[in-house]
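Researcher: We're teaching a course module on how sequence relates to structure. For the next exercise, students receive a sequence and then see the predicted structure as tokens, so they can try to spot secondary structure elements on their own. Here is the exercise chain.
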Amino acid sequence: MPRKKETITLSIPPGTKDQLEAIARQLNITWGKEPSISGLIVAIAQQSVEVGKPFTLDSNQVNALHKAIKALSDAGQIGEAQTVLTLLLERSNLEAPLRQSLMKQLSQPAPAWRIQIEELIKKQQPFYLVYQNSQGDELAYTVRYAEVRFFERRFYLMMWCEETQDVENDIPDLPELWHNRCLRLDRIESMATIPASGNWRGELGYLEVYLHFRQGLVKAYQPKEDDIKDEVIGDVRQVVRRVVNDFWLIREVSRYWEDCVIVSPESLRDRLKQKLVTLCQLYDIETRS
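Model: And here is the predicted structure for the students to work with:
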């Protein structure tokens, strides 16, 4: 027995019927071969279709979503990054150059090395990779420990490698850190298909660094994951931290100016001293020899 249907009478401006039929045809809602306005109304009522202009994004929103896509890709969440890309293409009103760029990005598969690194880290399997540094030099590394870390605005691959020649002259007084590298993920060029032989290390090389936080930082300092000791002694807050990269530590300390002091080791303290001397020279400030 056929189900009883309700009828309604619509009063619409001239031309609206053609517009409704065009929408029904676009959504493939038909009665036989013809577009069905009745079917379109039912679909709208059941919320099975959406009509209207696609949402638009201003430059700030597009920039924010680009950063989100890059962050997701760097973190290895390739599927989520592709989902955001698809959302932009399907739902936003993009200008042609941006749409073409996103379509190209969507069509490019995730670099094979990115997936391989995640798998090898889980398996604790040493591997080889090729990296291009900021000067355009290609460097080959044998990796025996790796982890992905976030510094400031991006993710990096922190790793322990056998090769040390490229940094020995830069940090001759910090041999504990010679084997550590901090690589930008987007500058990794390739990985060898054959894993490296030998053992996987349990951690990065590190220095135990004593830091004194002063003034407002005694209370305001936020503990870090690598802090192994944290106590208030008199009017300073003494933190002992396992430091795996001198660049990021000095960058952090520089933000605090006189409210944070590297107490030891002397080698790392001297590195900061030399940077301060160079800075004084650049600004014509006399220093004692």
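Model: If you want an answer key for the exercise: The two ends are 103 Å apart (CA to CA). The chain has three domains: 59-110, 113-191, 207-282.
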